[in-house]
Amino acid sequence: MSTLVTRRSLIGAAAVAGVALGSRVVPGSAAPSRGFARLTSAQQEDPTGPHTLPALPYDYAALEPHIDTLTMQIHHDKHHQTYVTNLNKAVVDQPDLQAMSVEQLVTGLDAAPEAIRTPIRNSAGGHLNHTMFWEIMAPGGGAASAQLAAAIDRDLAGLEALQTAVNDAGAKRFGSGWAWVVADASGTLSVASTPNQDNPLMDGSGTPILGVDVWEHAYYLKYQNRRPDYLAAWWNTVNWDVVSQRYAAAVGA
Ligand code: MN3
User: Fold this and answer.
1) 150: CA distance to ligand 1 center in Å?
2) Do domains 7-135 and 146-250 have the same CATH topology?
3) Which residue in 69, 154, 168, 219 has its CB near the most CB atoms, within 10 A?
4) Measured in angstroms, how far is the CA atom of residue 127 from the centroid of ligand 1?
5) CATH hierarchy code of domain 146-250
6) Model pLDDT for residues 216-236, shown as the tens digit of each residue
7) How far is the CA of 213 from the centre of ligand 1 (A)?
8) Ranges of each domain in the chain
């Protein structure tokens, strides 16, 4: 009997997930398959939840040649989706945690039961980091605001030195992680690196205004082992308008 109830609730969850999948519009994506028979067993077990994959704000091919189309498709549709799915799974029996934003989750990891703290750290971090990553890139580029440019000159010896420091932090990150430009509570900028899907918000060191993903999945198809080449090319994709807005928000807060 309890098995039946469990199976019914799973089928119900899959039905909702199927509807959500069918209505999700992502530029350049293939039409989603419909019908439960086509869902994998893993998808059938996906609980619906409060967190959803944001659509890319541009086409998959928009960042060519610096980031290739296939990398963008897999990175967004598969890797980021998995962080969202795993986050929803982690909080499925936690109404209090379901009500929290992803920023609240990563800044308040101690509030989570110990048994799910690591899954939340990894999946909420991954969701937050990638959501920012898509937003701070653009085909155009733009320029830093006067406010941000002054802070970069004051704290990091100028844009070129900032880029060198971020490239260095990203290249030296052993294994997987991110390199960041972080604004502390006073608005002072610094360069940092974190492992895995950690985020500077987690230890209170500041608000990331810019971050570059140095996991191999972010670059391996095009750059293979040449992480420094990926980092050098990545600067061509930075949306300085959004980075400037993030800095203004960090200073204002
Ligand atoms: Mn990634």
Assistant:
1) 30
2) no
3) 219
4) 9
5) 3.55.40.20
6) 999 999 999 999 999 999 999
7) 6
8) 7-135, 146-250
**Domain 7-135, second-level architecture:** Orthogonal Bundle (1.10)
Q: How far is the CA of 12 from the centre of ligand 1 (A)?
A: 31
15 CA from centroid of ligand 1 (Å): 28
| Mean pLDDT, all residues of the chain | 85
Q: Is the pLDDT of residue 202 over 80?
A: yes
Q: Say what the pTM is.
A: 0.81
How big is the chain, counted in residues?
253
Ligand 1 centroid–CA 230 distance in Å is: 13
**Average pLDDT rounded to a whole number, residues 107-130:** 96
pLDDT digits (tens, 9 = 90+) for 9-51: 333 333 333 333 333 333 433 333 332 333 333 443 455 679 9
pLDDT at residue 156 tops 50: yes
